[in-house]
Design goal:
- The structure holds two protein chains of two kinds.
- In chain A, helix 1 crosses helix 2 (32-45) and helix 2 (32-45) crosses helix 6.
- Helix content of chain A is 21%, strand content 18%.
- By secondary structure, chain A is of the alpha/beta class.
- Chain A has a nine-stranded mixed beta sheet, with helices on both faces. In chain A, strands 6-7 form a two-stranded antiparallel ribbon. Chain A has a two-stranded antiparallel ribbon with strand order 8-9.
- In chain B, 35% of the residues lie in helices and 20% in strands.
- Chain B has helices spanning 13-17, 34-42, 54-62, 84-91, 102-113, 129-132, 182-188, 202-207, 240-256, 260-271, 276-283, 285-289, and strands spanning 10-11, 25-28, 48-51, 66-71, 96-99, 118-121, 137-140, 147-152, 158-166, 172-173, 191-199, 219-222.
- In chain B, the strands form two sheets. In chain B, strands 1, 2, 3, 4, 5, 9, 10, 11 and 12 form a nine-stranded mixed beta sheet that branches. A three-stranded antiparallel beta sheet of chain B has the order 6-8-7.
- The model of chain B has no long low-confidence stretch (mean pLDDT 96).
- Classes of the chains: A alpha/beta, B alpha/beta.
- Chains A and B meet through strand 9 and helix 3 of A and helix 4, helix 5 and helix 7 of B.
Chain lengths: 262, 294
């Protein structure tokens, strides 16, 4: 079957359909797939969604398309905002973040969805690869209702048995009560999505489990590219193509420049 | 009869940065006060502890000014995941990294502003942050017995900020809103130096006192286009091509041992221009005028 869209578009549409009207959707920088997903979700089924980019909170459901400077830091994002939550009180209302949804990337991910933006190496003072740092992800993932781990590559260097450093706690050492034990009020990671597959977490152990393989990807390929044993259910479906309607909105009203198509 | 004269706090960039000294803790706001950052490099301050991110952090490291960073995010932008000079210096152990994140940083700054030894914070519990930064202590809270991080007060000696306007007495109005961290830095810092696009009369401040974001800056400096190559809300947008040019020469220096381009960049834009006006002449009027917002 001929692919009807790119993997990035597939993932943006998958994420968009997992977001619910009324939610607050916060996207940081350098995450083009979630950025497209929240804008798509707002247009297709989210008249009461609120999007938060760089502290600028907006509802752009009424716009035919969003000519917003996209996929990076640009102060003009404030032009579409109804409020600017960065005025010295960014973290003063975390008690209400249970209805907020967030997205994180990572240099490493372990079997329980703990992630690392700090660096790779055994000695923190002499890292082999110094990462960008945690930004605000420890605080956000501690409190938000749920979040998604979104990765641009899927390799054994990223999916490791143990992160060299943990910057965001997914399910800690595992177990459904792992976050409660640590006193973390947020709901934790729901899905981990990559260019090869979609994964979630088993209900009891909270271990990464394969949900679906993208069209053309084999189970053996995913296992070879994952540095630990994934939980493989009896049935592994193929990730569904987006609907033509969603793809049309994505291409004509969100990603007009085609950044996700390449 | 009224006697005496109210003291003006208006200074040149050289006078303002002369208040700084080697070894101080310097906090950089956002929008980024790049003209003051360039002046710090020009005056060859050394062994600074800096609270900064992005280009200002990377440029101060490239300029040899930094001993330690209080670091929450050091992305490069424009497809460069980590600021190049930061990455090289950190990997080689040439700078010390006080690892934190935004909620931890603002808690430490709030503790300083409130005169407290620490404030508790939850974000970071369960992560590696308290292991790689032993100043962050895991504590049992005395009210509910929960495990929290105690974040020590973070006390910058000087905050360097960028805003829209101020009067000569240090009344600052950000207009487009202060960036996410400016007011935390101002409340925590011992001294505050603010560069502005425009100096306005005291009458203009008194016409809208509720718009004043900082009431007693120690020094204000008139530096129009002073955030270039970054943006200034309501005045101009970021100069993305300039930022990409910097990242290209910094990446060549940091990752390929080709330091000539970065050295030339530092000379051309930081060391050689005697004043901010000389810097703007080098950037060029056409380039600046093309950055007007919208």
């Amino acid at each position: 079957m001929t692919p009807c869209c790119s993997t990035a578009e597939l993932l943006a549409c998958f994420l968009a359909r997992d977001l619910n009207d009324g939610e607050e959707l916060q996207v940081g920088i350098a995450l083009p797939i979630p950025e497209a997903a929240v804008r798509l979700a707002q247009l297709t089924h989210g008249p009461n969604m609120e999007l938060i980019f760089l502290g600028a909170r907006m509802n752009v459901h009424h716009l035919d398309h969003l000519p917003m400077p996209a996929f990076g830091w640009d102060s003009r994002v404030v032009r579409w905002a109804e409020s600017f939550s960065d005025r010295g009180h960014r973290f003063d209302q975390v008690k209400d973040w249970h209805r907020r949804v967030f997205f994180v990337g990572g240099l490493q991910v372990d079997p329980h969805g703990n992630t690392n933006l700090i660096g790779v190496g055994q000695d923190f003072r002499r890292l082999k690869f110094r990462g960008p740092g945690s930004v605000g992800t420890p605080t956000l993932t501690t409190h938000v209702g749920r979040y998604y781990i979104v990765l641009n590559t899927h390799t054994p260097r990223i999916f490791v048995p143990r992160c060299d450093f943990i910057s965001t706690v997914g399910w800690g050492n595992g177990g459904a009560d792992a976050r409660t034990q640590l006193g973390l009020p947020g709901g934790g990671p729901k899905y981990c999505i990559t260019p090869l597959c979609i994964m979630d977490f088993t209900p009891e152990e909270k271990r990464l489990r394969l949900v679906s393989l993208h069209p053309g990807v084999t189970l053996a390929q995913v296992q070879a590219q994952t540095g630990f044993e994934l939980v493989i259910p009896a049935q592994v479906p193929t990730t569904a193509w987006p609907t033509l309607e969603d793809l049309h909105v994505l291409r004509t009203q969100v990603d007009v420049a085609g950044a996700l198509r390449g | 009869m009224n006697t005496g004269v109210r003291t003006s706090r208006l200074h040149t960039e050289a006078q303002a940065v002369a208040m700084l000294d080697h070894g101080m803790t310097i906090a950089i706001g956002e929008p980024t006060p790049m003209a003051l950052v360039r002046q710090v490099i020009r005056q060859q301050l050394r062994d600074l502890t800096v609270i900064a991110s992005g280009l200002s952090l990377d440029l101060l490291i490239a300029g040899g000014c930094v001993r330690k960073t209080i670091s929450y995010y050091a992305g490069g932008g424009f497809g460069v995941p980590v600021a190049p000079c930061f990455r090289r210096a950190a990997e080689r152990g040439e700078i010390e990294v006080w690892e934190c994140e935004e909620g931890i940083l603002t808690s430490g700054l709030e503790a300083a502003g409130k005169g407290l030894p620490f404030l508790p914070w939850r974000g970071g519990v369960g992560t590696s942050l308290p292991e790689i930064n032993p100043d962050l202590k895991l504590i049992r809270d005395p009210i509910n017995g929960e495990t929290l991080l105690a974040v020590p007060a973070i006390k910058p000696d000087v905050a360097l900020l960028h805003a829209s306007v101020a009067d000569v007495y240090g009344n600052v109005q950000h207009q487009g809103g202060p960036g996410w961290i400016d007011l935390f830095l101002q409340r925590a810092a011992t001294h505050c130096i603010v560069q502005v696009e425009k100096i306005v009369p005291n009458e203009a401040i008194r016409a809208a006192p509720w718009a004043t974001t900082i009431g007693r800056a120690d020094a204000v400096v008139r530096l129009p286009w002073g955030a270039h190559p970054w943006y200034s809300r309501g005045w101009y947008v970021q100069d993305s091509a300039f930022l990409a040019d910097y990242l290209a020469v910094a990446t060549a220096a940091a990752e390929r041992d080709q330091p000539a381009g970065l050295a030339e960049f530092l000379n051309r834009y930081c060391h050689e221009p005697a004043t901010h006006a000389d810097y703007l002449e080098r950037v060029g009027l056409k380039r600046l005028l093309a950055l007007h917002e919208y």
